[in-house]
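Q: Entry one of two.
A:
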Amino acid sequence: MSTQAIPESDLSFEESTRRLTDIVAQLESGDLPLEQSLALFEEGVRLARAAQARLDNAEKRVDELLAVDQQGKPILKPFEG
């Protein structure tokens, strides 16, 4: 599956990491012209940033779920779905 036409923000974390793995393999092969290598590198950077943003968001959600007050009681907040 080619994901080049799909914006990085629309890919799932798993799709992003699969595409990044593919990009790394292509770049490591050393068989690509410079311009194609640069285009793949740029795509990889965008994918990595989008994946990192998803991880940061997931970490924030986990922190919110595990938050407790000074007495050790859960801090309840309205769910933002």
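Q: Entry two of two.
A:
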Amino acid sequence: MLYMVIESFLPGKEKLIYQRLEEKGRLMPDGVRYINSWVERDLSKCYQVMECDSEENLLAWMRNWDDLMKFEIIPVLTSEEAKQKVMAS
């Protein structure tokens, strides 16, 4: 499944986020795959698309970062998947 993950950086933690990323990588468990991400210009939020087999694996990944940011998880479909779903009904 695909998920849009909205990461809200905790105030003053931006540098620590990028330091951890540089030192330890994304800290993703098996079964979680990073697709792409975009960061707001004020560096307060990151919008990230992730793919994973189970939401449990996604939650395990988030626990590696929850001291530096808060998360919102939105299950999403690709545009093509949405089209197929609509046309099949």
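A: Comment on entry two: The mean pLDDT is 96. The domain at 2-88 is CATH 3.30.70.1060 (Alpha-Beta Plaits).
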